[in-house]
Amino acid sequence: MGAHEPLREGDRDRRSAPSPPGGLLDLLSVAAVVLDTRGRIVFWSPQADEVFGYTAEEALGRYAAHLLVREEHQELVVKLFAEVMSTGASWAGAFPIRHKDGSTRLVEFRNMRLLDDLGDVYALGIAADQSTLARVETDLALSQRLVSQAPIGIALLDTSLRYLLVNPALERINGIPAADHIGKHPHDILPFLDVDTIESALRQVLLTGTPLLDQYTVGRTLADLDHDHAWSVSYYRIDGPSGRVIGVANSVVDVSERHRATTEADRARRRLAVIADASARVGSTLEVEQTAQELVDVAVPDLADVAAVDVLDDVLAFRRTAPSHEPGPETFRALAVAAAYPSRAATASLGVGDLAAYGADRLITRCVHTGQPIVIAHADGNDLQHIARDADAAAAFAQAGVHSYIAVPLIARNEVLGALDLLRARSPLPFDEDDVLLAGELASRAAVAIDNARWHQSVRNTAETLQRSLLPGHPPPLPGLHVASLYQPAQATHEVGGDWYDVIPLADDKTALVVGDVMGNGIDAAATMGRLRTATCTLADLDLDPDQVLQHLDKITQGLEHYIATCIYAVYDPRAHQCRTANAGHLPPVLAPAGRHPQLLDLPTGAPLGVGGVPFHTTTFDLKPGDRLVLYTDGLVETRHHPIDERLDTLLHALAEPRRPLDETCQWLLHSLRHPDDHDDVAILIAQATSPP
Fold this sequence. Notes:
Blueprint: H1 9-16, H2 24-28, E1 31-35, E2 41-44, H3 46-52, H4 56-59, H5 64-68, H6 71-87, E3 91-98, E4 104-115, E5 121-129, H7 130-149, E6 153-157, E7 163-166, H8 168-174, H9 178-181, H10 186-189, H11 195-208, E8 212-219, E9 229-239, E10 245-254, H12 256-281, H13 288-299, E11 306-312, H14 313-316, E12 330-339, H15 344-347, E13 355-358, H16 363-370, E14 374-376, H17 381-385, H18 391-400, E15 404-412, E16 415-424, H19 433-470, E17 481-488, E18 497-505, E19 511-521, H20 522-540, H21 546-558, E20 565-573, E21 578-584, E22 590-592, E23 599-600, E24 618-622, E25 628-632, H22 644-655, H23 662-673, E26 682-689
Helix pairs in contact: 12-13, 12-19, 13-19, 19-20, 20-21, 22-23
């Protein structure tokens, strides 16, 4: 509190009230002795007992010179006493006295003349043991030096949390002169820090007496408003010798360098963690959209509040044969979007699958044209117009608080595929060069995975197109037989296989039913399947027995390049209501008689086509009106986690359900038995006998 600052009411009350012992006078044990004009002791304070060793009863009425001064010093004492009494001038200094225990001690005196209301004159002596005084002086000097010269900030606050003392180091830390602290509270001095927490800690220490050590505080003071600093702050209560609470002290150590080093180390660890996460998660499948989604899921929330992957539509569709050097525009397709929390910034971004054309002035267009990252550390309204898809989206970005932006190109095999877009809104820090490096590392890893998925998907689409083109169309009406079929390729991340089926009308109202599976996948497997299907159709026209057809197919398959295939070949005669069947290493068909439980047909399994040297056998069984024959490939029932017998039982239970139309039955079997992530194609062919024509 300043010297001219008026006392508040509460301050006046506190100063007028008695205070408990424990002040400096008690620490020094200052004694008071009063002598009359003849030098007799007439007043003796309790502290004099400690300084001189005599009690009041022993000292009162005695001549001070005789009691307290050795004989060789008495003449000097009498002379000094006479000067004080005659002139009224004070005398101060150290003088040897005789203690009651017989020892000689140096005592600091301050002597002065007193005058009472009756005109009587007395001499007052104020005394303190010199060794005690010297120790206190040394302690005070040392404390003052330690406080004033300490490289750490030190402050003392009273019990009302007003500054009593501030050393030069804290003056420099706070950027305010020490004198301007005195009498003020922390919230008056530190407006840019979390001062509520600071004052709460000070009150807690005052109340409990338990120190709070090494409290971490980060923020800014008037000494440097442009940069954050970090301080280690400790709080401890100051008690007097008698236990009276004087106030609370705090020490402040600037640990900004350590904080920055720790922060950098933490950021480096986070970057490594994000990269490790990306290595484990991105590219887990060969599906373009899934790979893009994995990338944005890694980027949010550790790197950005909103992340999106936008790929050039021409590149995705393989329509671009050379890098574009045109000024624009470019058409982008959104592959993935992720947000750390619901916000208008996320909803204003392109939805997955949406197309948008951006001109050369757009930042994402510039990013893919230059192949270089675009960084807007502090994005304003004009920047948002060049980031968002349209004016409404830019307004939504502004409302959501988007303030920083990065676009990083996705480059694989020297081709720019698109860009990874990152936005920050709730996160207060702008993007910096470290963020750009991390985003670039994520983008480079993901770009290769996206490109691999893009090429794989293209090859797969080609194989699937070939596969479907080789399968039969809707069969013509068949005498005494209704058929339904279904082909389902494997999921997009795996190659199309060589599964096929066929329905071949024969002479005499007969019909050949075929289901086969070429081992392998891709275009080669699809092409091999086409050759075997063509050969099967040709052989069927020769009216051969099923086992003979398989023997010829076996020879044909042996001539193909390292391929084998399984196959079921059946011929249905509606007039005899019989079906003649041969099996080449394929899973057994299911016979579902009308009104009875389905069963697996017990057929000689035979060897797969292409093995050679193993005979095939034809088996005849009845297929009466209403009976169904179910042919299928192994992709319907085989899994990695269940025995095949268990899965075949599951197939029989599925077919035992109340009968559905043939087409619905095909879909029912697919959805009941096949998991979406199964890695094999499925072909299903169901034939139901009807009354003969």
